[in-house]
Amino acid sequence: MIRVTIDNILVEVEEGTTILQAARMIGGKVVPPAMCYYTGLKGSGGKCRSCLVKVARSSAKDPRPMPKLVASCSTPVQDGMAVENSISEEVREARKGIVEFLLLNHPLDCPVCDQAGECDLQDLSFAYGMEETQTREPRREYKEVDIGPLIKLHMNRCIHCYRCVLAAGQLTGKRVHGMLYRADTMEISTFIQTAINNDFSGNMIDVCPVGALTDRTFRFKSRVWFLNPVNAHRECSKCSGKVTAWMFGKEIYRITGRKDRFGELEEFICNECRFEKKDMADWIIEGPRKIKRQSVISSNHYEELKKGSIIRPIEGRTEPQE
What we know:
This protein is α+β, with helices and mostly antiparallel strands. Helices cover 16% and strands 20% of the residues. Helix 2 (89-102) crosses helix 3.
């Protein structure tokens, strides 16, 4: 076993464990945020940079610190390594810059976005975002692309985490979409306007950390904080049939996979369970699902925010309130 210290907390892990995985064994504020890494998807991680941490001591044999911040999702631990995450001011400042970069072209769609209330980018912005942006350039916009009758693509919200591409490639026999082009023109799309239609394509909605991929059958029906999530299951020949049913009264509004405390799916579910089974008679209800209310909507911390700035559109400036 390897001994590693993260935010002054000692933990023993197996060889080959990454810093992020070691931090998750400890839990709490020690865990760096992750917008692209996903445990169930091979090759994920190393793209969003939001999980950067400071290695204050490389190992017991080499006590020198690493010269730059490293991505915790792809950096394996060494025996005697000392890592700083929440206690490092350098990490916090770097994360603020990363959040600003992720929001550079992200539209202010939270009031109408179906992902609001369970959005990883919302939580990240709540923790590290700044009130004002430093850019004046217009936001990048994409033309609307239809990828099928079940999933709605909002390319303007995409942060290029690559999760949906990996999910489609690893869960299905034939992937028909991917990353097109390069740099600021990069986008997720199907190359010849092909509809994404396979038995497990709906899992792309669950792995998406933002509202770039949403459920057409749930579109604009309700906010998630108005719904009651319950564990449910059914006999299914394609998947385990274990899901989370989001209910309002005795009506099922949507079906999602069950997620762990880090927001990752415990098991992938098929499209039949997700999109076609919305009747109470289709499911055996197990009971209320315990969900950690850590979302920006659920935390009820708005009273801690300072007053919003007064916008002066004619003068082209904002005036902060005391």
